[in-house]
Records
---
Amino acid sequence: MAKLHIVGAGAIGSLIAAGAEKHGVAYARYPKPHSTIPETVKWNDSDIVSLSAPASTPSCLCQDDVLVLPLKVYQLKHALLAWSSYLENRPPLVLLHNGLGGDEIATSVLGENYPILLATTSHGALKEPDGKTATYTGLGKTQIGLPRRGDMARNDKHLPWVQEASALLNTALPPVDLVDDITRALWQKLAINCVINPLTALNNMRNGGVLLKEYDEIRHALCREFAIVAEQYGLVFSVQELEKNVLSVASLTAQNYSSMHQDIAMDRHTEIDAINGYIVSLANKKGISVPTHALMVDRVKGLVL
């Protein structure tokens, strides 16, 4: 029987585990040592889902298992190095995180031919302050697909392992859409994160604060610079499209705090290098100036002493 193996102790991983629990999908959870992992999830219908106890140590995964890493990009390399000896049967790996750069890290550890899927989700989940409970805060969907390799998009979603891995995730936490070009979906989410995350962190505000007129100029600058860099890497976005998406998400999640806001509030390492920092890195490779993104990186890093 295929099994989901979920790494980490975060809210989204706990939500996937709760979905697996509700829908009869075999799963195991692997938190970082000494971390507090949710024992229950408050589902969106007020149901309380009790989760299985975390696994003490990993064992060799079967070929039809799926390893899900809902981690932050800066946590990936350490996690993959720890897991590499248990992946001799080459079970599919699903990377689920904010920002970009995780695929490059995974291939550097496991090799270019390892079966990797990239995913992004709009499901909302929050880990409560006690760390023992997670709350399902918003129904969404997950998009999943094969990463690009070089200039070619690996869009053969009919490969058996791709179909089976996405079907297993869809059973646990639907809906899961298997898309031809996950790269564009990830860039679209990155654009939203590049605006909402740093602005809410720097100004200590909920997502809805980004809608205020005083942020019009900086929102536009971030989207404009993003579109310029994206075009250099073969992805064309209109600035108006990007701004519209940012405003829509900020409105729909107006009462939420962004993950970067929460990281700063709890004195944790942020994902700024995988969000605005990723755009700065790509821009530098092409000799493009992105001063607004660079400013966001410097200012957010200045908050973490």
---
Amino acid sequence: VDRWIGDEARAERVFRARQLALSGIAIGRHPEVKPGDPLLRSGDKESEGFEVRISDESGKINPNFWIGQNQRDLFIKLLDSWEIDPRDRDAGIDGLADWIDGDDFRSLAGAERGEYEAAGRAGFPANRPLLNIREMEAVLGMDRLLAAREGWKELFTTWHSGKINIQFAGEDLLSNVAELTPEQIRALFELRAGPDAIEGSADDVKLESVEAAAGLIGAGGRQLELLEAFFDVSPGIRRIESTGYCAGTKHRIVVIAPESGGGQIMSWEEE
């Protein structure tokens, strides 16, 4: 009886935490709600409440897009900043290309069906675009590189198909891909955030072009070339992470949807 009562109590807490997380998603999807809005937090973690984090997927790298463009330079620059051995770097990039392309021809340092079968993983590679960035962990050659890099998932997406949006790009990509200095990155963040210093809020400065942004932070020469090659000011894609709390139990929901808030939900994950 005690066990049954305990199970029912836990189920009730899970249900309530999910309901609170759903409330956070509903608020986060509203196009007028921006990061820093008091509505994104309710109650507390110890008893009952929810917390919502809004970010943007367009400031990340879509491997499907860049591999499709046969653009290795972006991956080379990023992986070199991780201090990866060039042989391991090339194996990771070629392995990713072999996973995404639709044929069975092995890239120079990549892996096709024979290599996966030898590794005891028959049936791979998928020979199609990545459906989720977590699939990158299954790519021979890339798996070891990612295992050694904490936080790598924050750099990639499969939802934004295009260049990296400079409006939302993070420090890692601005530094290692565009070669901006810490001072230039800080100036860009301050410019984007506007007077309230909160990125994504209502008073943000909308960057009109990569060239305009580069001029405002003093980026020229090679920096400008890299910015023009890998970055743009494409439309945003909202990522909403809502976590509900109930008496020590939590439930997390992640939703990807157009920035306008009115479009169809692109992805819904719960844990």
---
Amino acid sequence: MRITRDMLLRTARETAQKRAFDDPSLVAAYLTGSLRSENPFLGDSTDVDIVFIHPDTPPLRRELVALTPNVHLDILHVPQSDYAKPRELRLNPWLGPELYDPLPLLVSGHFFEFVQAGVRDKFNDPESILTRARTSCTHARQIWSGLQADSRTGPDLLLAYLKSIVHAVNAVSLSVNGKPLAERRLLLQFPIHAEEAGKPELADALLELLGAGNLDMDGEMLSACLAAWEQDFTLAAGTPGVEPRISMIRLNYYKLACQAMLEGESPHTILWPLLLTWTYSARSLPAAQRKTWESTCLGMGLLGSGFTEKLDSLDRFLDVIEEMLEEEPS
């Protein structure tokens, strides 16, 4: 059966209605993420991002529900208190863009009227746009600074490095597009936003930060990495304490997207989702079971002696973005 965007929008509404029937205390629910775009599919896979707002702190934070092998619900449960100060949320790099234009699925009282009145007020003012971008860039710099004397090793160290990178690239995206980058499409979208920001050189610099220049990143090499990634992802999924995104429900969500990118004009665009989820998987595996991940990252300069050079490159990457954001809004 062919899955369409309209079918998934209907599923999102029906899910909200059923949850509200089962739990009348729900305050609101809204749709966000890729399904808000006209083409949410990448490699014939996608997810349906729904946020349920509860009057109190919910016992479960995140919930994944399979719809088909390639499509799933990604449900976030949050307390109403997270939305108590909408004028502050307006300047939040993540929640601000999300709340500016979600698709309401369930409305109780005047929740969306209250929240969106505060979020939308001056949201598109140049000063607000720059504040969100600068906040993201500041987070990136703070993480980079902490990495200078970080005693962590292996996956924990690399995840911190990747977190700094994603905040940095989102600072660029927020400054020109108003939204943070989608996880699977990060390397597909970033060159466009770097060009719009007048800093096209950042696109190649980002690939270097992710180790693309340290190995011969042809399709055959990347296909071998993807096969090793799948093995580790499968081993890690469901282990105690694993990052929620490392779930068998999401295996095809990542795998099919990466395969589609491998078959496209820019195979290296799989590097972000591949590295991020592979590193999360490796963190949950015994050291003896993450040898392929480790040797690959060593070869890419993302661990070991090459990591210091990557940190220096990240410093220069951040310098360019910080200089770009220093200008006063017009």
